[in-house]
Design goal:
single chain, 205 residues, alpha+beta, Jelly Rolls, eight-stranded antiparallel beta sheet, 5 helices, binds 2-oxoglutaric acid, binds fe (ii) ion
Length: 205
């Protein structure tokens, strides 16, 4: 009974308007757009993804050793059904909002599951694909325990830090993937898990 009534009161999972995004120009042709609380009722999405996505643990060669990648992953290619309908809605809303500036839709979704503060992603740009040569955008919806996304210019410079909370959106745009690097540092404070959903255009990885 109690659980039922609590569940009935839970906020509906819904996206707000993208008109409220605020842009910060980083320099060297790179920028970030941030919209805290884009998704409301994010608990339901977090629980659904944490329990329902067939997460993969990967291992990578690091110099002479094979090490665990410190997060769980799942990639959804163009045309693949996303694991929650609100993610299709998010991708489509981003594609519509950025259509003129981006010139193509967001088509893939990469999901990362940071199980706790020990999980992380090291400094990198998303440069496996076209992001190495072309301006593009990577839009990230974050749910779960807040974690910082940090950015720094390639070759060094001041670090820009953006805390990403439950339901927050950040979009990295312009030359950000090739002239800047980003990371999710380990955190002694983060007790719970975080899931990020990265929307990218076709061919950007
Ligand atoms: O989890 C995030 O917000 C960032 C993940 C990321 O940078 C990546 O997968 O390329
Ligand atoms: Fe990245």
């Amino acid at each position: 009974m109690l659980q039922g009534s609590l569940f009935d009161q839970a906020e509906e999972t819904a996206l707000g308007s993208l008109e409220a995004v605020r842009r910060t120009v980083l320099g060297d042709g790179a920028w970030i757009d941030v919209l805290p609380g884009w998704l409301s009722g994010a608990d339901e999405l977090y629980e659904h993804l944490a329990g329902g996505v067939p997460w993969k643990a990967e291992r990578r060669q690091m110099y002479e050793r094979i090490v665990d990648v410190p997060r769980l992953l799942r990639f959804y290619g163009a045309g693949e059904r996303l694991p929650h309908p609100v993610l299709d809605a998010a991708r489509d809303a981003l594609s519509a909002y950025y259509a003129r500036e981006l010139g193509e839709p967001f088509s893939t979704a990469g999901l990362c599951y940071y199980r706790d503060g020990r999980d992380s992603v090291a400094w990198h740009g998303d440069r496996i694909g076209r992001g190495a040569r072309e301006d593009t955008m990577v839009a990230i919806l974050s749910v779960g325990t807040p974690r910082d996304l940090v950015l720094r210019p390639v070759g060094g410079g001041p670090v820009v830090r953006r805390p990403l909370g439950h339901g927050d959106l950040i979009v990295m745009g312009g030359s950000c993937q090739r002239t800047w690097e980003h990371a999710i540092p380990k955190s002694a404070r983060a007790a719970g898990g975080r899931i990020s959903v990265q929307f990218r255009p076709h061919g950007v990885r």
